[in-house]
Design brief:
The protein is an alpha/beta fold. The protein has one domain: Rossmann fold. 47% of the residues lie in helices and 20% in strands. It has 9 helices and 7 strands. A 7-stranded mixed beta sheet has the order 3-2-1-4-5-7-6, with helices on both faces. The longest helix is centred in the first third of the chain and has 27 residues. 41% of the residues are buried.
């Protein structure tokens, strides 16, 4: 992805890329992560507030986190939003299979411009999506805006392992093996070359935590998962 592209043009390019790989997205997530991605999502939703809550799941894609949140919190009402219609089209069949059609509402929307009123959600989640947002500060501000006081923001994404050996092995897999396998299965090699590039270009853990604090979240914490291959960020709206 060209870093010199204007924000709107870059966002459209990312949107088109995800729509193109939507048919094989779930299969490749499982294959390329060896199934570990499901445990990462479960860890994220385990931090949701208790009780009858309203959850906004951004970059919801085909609905994996929305489904996990609805199952984890039986009294939760989940709103899944994604800027890619191609990705969203994969969610309704999964919601029907899980008998969650009445509890999960889907919306075509960008994390940078949320079509929701102020202070209406108890939690906001976004898994493997924040690094694809062009204007991250704006998206964080929007998350803060729609959360009620005391509401939680849970953000999960790939990261670079801190251990040098693990980082080297991971780098080989991420930059050589994953783009080849992903491109082979999806037919879109460019999309799976973009993935490691987007992770490498994402802010370091403390830098991104500082961005969350700058958006008004306090306290902010982060925890590594699976040797630092992924990181879960947690923020609270005071």
């Amino acid at each position: 992805m060209n870093e010199t592209q204007p924000a709107a043009e870059k966002a459209r390019a990312i949107q088109g890329m995800f729509s193109a790989i939507a048919p094989t997205y779930d299969l490749l997530n499982r294959l390329l992560s060896c199934g570990v991605d499901a445990s990462w999502r479960r860890e994220m939703v385990s931090h949701l507030p208790t009780g009858p809550i309203r959850v906004l799941d951004l970059a919801c894609g085909t609905g994996d986190v929305s489904i996990a949140a609805a199952h984890w919190r039986e009294r939760a009402r989940v709103f899944g939003a994604d800027f890619s219609l191609g990705m969203l089209r994969g969610a309704p069949p999964k919601l029907a299979r899980e008998k969650l059609t009445r509890r999960v509402c889907l919306q075509n929307a960008s994390a940078e411009d949320l079509p929701y009123r102020d202070q209406v959600f108890d939690a906001v989640t976004i898994a493997f999506g924040i690094r694809n947002v062009v204007r991250r500060e704006r998206a964080l501000a929007e998350m803060h805006r729609v959360l009620r006081p005391g509401g939680r923001a849970l953000l999960l994404d790939f990261s670079l392992p801190p251990n040098p050996l693990v980082r080297t092995l991971y780098g080989f897999y991420f930059h050589r093996v994953l783009p080849f396998l992903g491109g082979l299965v999806s037919g879109n090699f460019a999309a799976y070359r973009y993935l490691p590039e987007s992770v490498a270009g994402f802010p370091a853990r403390e830098e991104f935590a500082a961005m969350m604090r700058g958006a008004g979240f306090s306290p902010v914490a982060h925890a590594d998962l699976t040797l630092g291959v992924a990181t879960l960020y947690r923020g609270t709206k005071p």
